[in-house]
Design goal:
The complex is a heterodimer. Chain A has a domain of 143 residues: Outer Surface Protein A, domain 3 (Alpha-Beta Complex). Chain A is of the alpha+beta class. The longest helix of chain A has 22 residues. Chain B is α/β, with parallel strands linked by helices. Chain B is globular, with a radius of gyration of 18 Å. Chain B contains nine helices and ten strands. Chain B has an eight-stranded parallel barrel with strand order 1-2-3-4-5-6-7-10. In chain B, helix 8 crosses helix 9. Classes of the chains: A alpha+beta, B alpha/beta. The interface between A and B is large, with 44 and 46 residues.
């Protein structure tokens, strides 16, 4: 590597990111068509963001979206090999941006759309068969931990963003802004393991907390502790086990952990 | 280097999602007139779900080539080992006949500009790229092909022509070429060199694959847009290419304003016809 090559690349990159024109002094004839790269850069980022966030685009309009994408990509230039990840920090950025942070429907839409995007093409994992739970020895249950499918996302929503988003993604003009949900809460977004279609549903508060705990490495006893805040003691085990069964049925669980060797079934 | 799993021959298309329904559900087996597909590698690295299911269904029916846009072989940043691991995992799965990327850099200091940016054509760049091609080929366990990109600027420090650069690179790094005939035309127009000099100067025996695409002519410069049919002067240059090189697996890229498959297959038929004519003409 030479200093010259590195310097030229730094100068060219600086120009494309909206900085100085110093690179022009190193180009033949001053680089009369240098603008092709600059124009292409902005257009490409906008196209990708519009593809992933049609709901946000429809909510804040062409000008607002163009401004948001430009400001966001200045603050978060892509560090990814695949441009598909460009929008990763957009929901958090919107939630903190002075122009948008007072509009929760916009930041919720962005979070929902990013969850849809992740659920759609996250890496594949085989779902855990329900029989695997039946084979866990009783003494292993309290310490049992769970691997979640990478496509499973959780989003906190206080607006009914899904119908608006569906219309926007199909290029129909949504008629009205998403209304407030009667019950705000956490929604799961995931990919059906057979059809590969992305689905979503609201979670009860304790189910959402339990899922968050499991994602953080929490075991079955932690799940029971969370359920115990909602139901009487005699119903705790059934409620926690009910969550688990639903999650396994939906393909959200892909593996088990925390089982001591001593209690592993002999055929495993 | 390991032997190629399956070689390409004939005429292919860039695989684009809008064509999945027609390819997979509208027909059993292969679509008449399409011999193989090329996929954009980044779209399938660490990806599952419907995109991967569709890709593997297409792979069951067609030979494939993998074409990357983010290797950034010319960047002064270190090679991205995670990316190379992902690329290798995808190649292990798809067993493509060709793995290619571009002679370019795509960003520095950890940033990816998602564009194919030109390198100064100097001995220093040549040494830098040749060394990195060697590292990439070692990591992948196979030879790669590099494509000539369309360029819109050249550097004051250029001391080599692009064809001399590519000749030296393929010899020094033992890599192959993906020749984009439209890009030769675009860069020749933008920088005022003779496309025939380019064709005469490249090592023909290194060319594994040819790309064709449409562009946008703005009068004083041309932009490689991949959003329109191939223009007549590029078809002429393609005929010249085949006369010089003999038959080479050839494909059309369309990345915007993507028409129905039938339209692209009709365009591909023109490539087939011109290639056959050029081969016959060269043999006569």
């Amino acid at each position: 590597m030479t200093a010259e090559l590195a310097d030229l690349q730094s100068m060219m990159q600086d120009r494309l990111l909206g900085g100085s024109d110093a690179i022009a002094g190193h180009l033949a004839q001053g680089g009369p068509f240098l603008k092709v790269y600059g124009n292409g850069y902005g257009a490409r980022l906008h196209e990708v963001m519009a593809d992933v966030f049609p709901g946000v685009h429809a909510l804040i309009g062409d000008d607002g979206f163009a401004r948001a994408v430009q400001d966001y990509t200045e603050a978060h230039p892509s560090r990814f090999r695949s441009i598909r990840w460009l929008g990763r920090d957009f929901p958090a950025w919107l939630a903190d941006a002075p122009a948008w942070r007072g509009q929760p429907v916009v930041t919720e839409m962005a979070a929902y759309e990013w969850a849809l995007s992740l659920a759609f093409d996250a890496p594949d994992r085989d779902p855990l068969p329900i029989e695997a739970l039946a084979s866990v020895a009783p003494e292993a249950w309290p310490g049992l931990t769970f691997d979640l499918h990478p496509a499973l996302q959780a989003v906190r929503l206080s607006h009914d963003v899904a119908p608006f988003r569906r219309a926007a993604a199909e290029d129909q003009d949504p008629e009205a802004a998403p209304p407030k949900l009667e019950v705000p809460g956490v929604w799961a977004v995931w990919r059906d393991s057979e059809t590969l279609i992305v689905r979503y549903r609201p979670l009860a508060d304790d189910e959402a907390q339990g899922l968050e705990a499991v994602r953080g490495g929490g075991d079955f006893s932690a799940l029971c502790e969370i359920a115990a805040e909602t139901v009487p003691p005699e119903e705790v085990a059934a409620r926690a086990a009910g969550f688990l069964k639903d999650w396994v049925d939906a393909g959200w669980i892909t593996g088990l952990g925390g089982i001591p060797e001593a209690v592993l079934p002999s055929d495993r | 280097m390991t032997d190629m799993i399956e070689s390409l021959s004939g005429f292919g298309l860039g695989l684009r999602p809008p064509h999945f329904p027609a390819l997979l559900d509208g027909i059993e087996g292969q679509w008449p007139g399409i011999d193989w597909f090329e996929v954009i590698s980044e779209n399938y690295i660490d990806v599952g779900g419907m995109p991967m299911r569709n890709l593997m269904r297409v792979r069951e029916r067609y030979p494939m080539a993998m074409h990357g846009v983010s290797l950034s072989i010319g960047s002064t940043d270190p090679l991205d080992r995670d990316y190379l691991r992902g690329l290798k995992a995808l190649a292990d799965r798809l067993e493509p006949a060709v793995v290619s990327d571009h002679l370019c850099w795509t960003g520095a200091h950890g940033i990816n500009l998602h564009d194919l940016l030109p390198l100064p054509l100097t001995e220093e760049s040549l040494a830098h790229v040749a060394d990195r091609v060697g590292q990439v080929q070692d990591a992948l366990g196979r030879r790669i092909a590099l494509e000539n990109a369309s360029t819109y600027v050249t550097y004051d420090s250029d001391s080599l022509t692009e064809w001399d650069f590519l000749s030296a690179l393929t010899a020094r790094a033992d890599c192959d070429l993906l020749l984009d005939v439209n890009n030769i035309y675009v860069s020749a127009f933008n920088h005022g060199f003779d496309a025939q000099d380019y064709l005469a100067g490249i090592p023909g025996d290194r060319v594994r694959q040819i790309h064709l695409a449409g562009h946008e002519n703005n009068g004083d410069h041309i932009v490689d847009t991949h959003d329109a049919p191939v223009v007549d002067p590029v078809w002429d240059l393609y005929s010249d290419t085949i006369r010089r090189l003999g038959p080479v697996p050839t494909m059309i890229e369309r990345d915007a304003k993507i028409p129905p498959l039938e339209e692209l297959v009709a365009e591909l038929q023109r490539a087939r016809r011109l290639s056959d004519n050029a081969v016959r003409g060269a043999a006569a």
